[in-house]
Amino acid sequence: xxxxxxxxxxxxxxxxxxxxxxxxxxxxxxxxxxxxxxxxxxxxxxxxxxxxxxxxxxxxxxxxxxxxxxxxxxxxxxxxxxxxxxxxxxxxxxxxxxxxxxxxxxxxxxxxxxxxxxxxxxxxxxxxxxxxxxxxxxxxxxxxxxxxxxxxxxxxxxxxxxxxxxxxxxxxxxxxxxxxxxxxxxxxxxxxxxxxxxxxxxxxxxxxxxxxxxxxxxxxxxxxxxxxxxxxxxxxxxxxxxxxxxxxxxxxxxxxxxxxxxxxxxxxxx
Length: 270
What we know:
Strand content: 5-15%
Strand order of the largest sheet: 3-4-5-6
Number of helices: 12
CATH topology of the largest domain: C8orf32 fold
CATH class of the largest domain: Alpha Beta
CATH architecture of the largest domain: Roll
Radius of gyration: 20 Å
Helix content: 55-70%
Distance between the termini: 40 Å
Largest sheet: 4 strands, antiparallel
Shape: globular
Number of domains: 2
Structural class: alpha+beta
Number of strands: 6
C-alpha cells in the first residue's frame, strides 16, 4: 500500500498490516520489503489452514494465539517496553516483540485476511482485540493472545460506560483503521520526544496528519514542534488545517485565536 493513498481512501479500505508496513518502510528505505510481504502471506496461509474448522469467535481466537504466539513467538516486549523498535512494524516482524498497538495490528490484520471479523479496541490503559460480532471474545496480543476474562470486560463496561454488558458492549471502543495507524505513529513520536530527538518527533506528527488529517491532537503537536524549530509559518498552516477538521465552533475559535496570536509572533532565538 502506498503511503500517499492512506489519507485519501475510505477507512474500511485500509489494510492495517500493509499500511503499517508501508509507514515503517519510510524508515527502512534501503531494506527490501518483499520478504515482509511474504511473511504476512505465509502467516495468512497458516491461519487459513489451522482455522478451517474454527467457527466460533473463541475457536478463532485460539487459532490466532496458537499460530502467532505459540508457533511464531509474537509477544509483548515487557523488558524493553519503551524501545522505539516496539512501534516500528518492520522491527516488530523481525524481533517478534512489540507494543500492544503493534501486535494488535498484526492480530486484527491476520484475522481479517482469514475472513474473520476483528477490531482493535482502545481500552483504558491497554489496547486489546475483539474477535467476532456475535458472542465475541476479547484477547490480549501483548499477552500472547490470551483471552480476557468476561468479568474484566464487564468491569470495564461498568467503569467506562456506566452499564452492564459483555464484549458486545465494547463496540464503542472500536478504533477506526486511521486511528489505529495514528496511535502506532504517536507511540513513535512520544519515544522520539523522550529521547530528545525532536526532528524525528516532528516527522512522526507530519506522518499522522498525512494519513489521518482528522486527528486534531496531531495537528496541535505538529504546530508545537514547528514552533520549536522557529517555523512560525508552518505552525500557522497546521492550525488552519486543524480548524478545518474541528467539529465544533468553540474549538475552531480557540484554534483561530492561537493562529492570530502567531501572526505577530517573532521567531524564538536559537
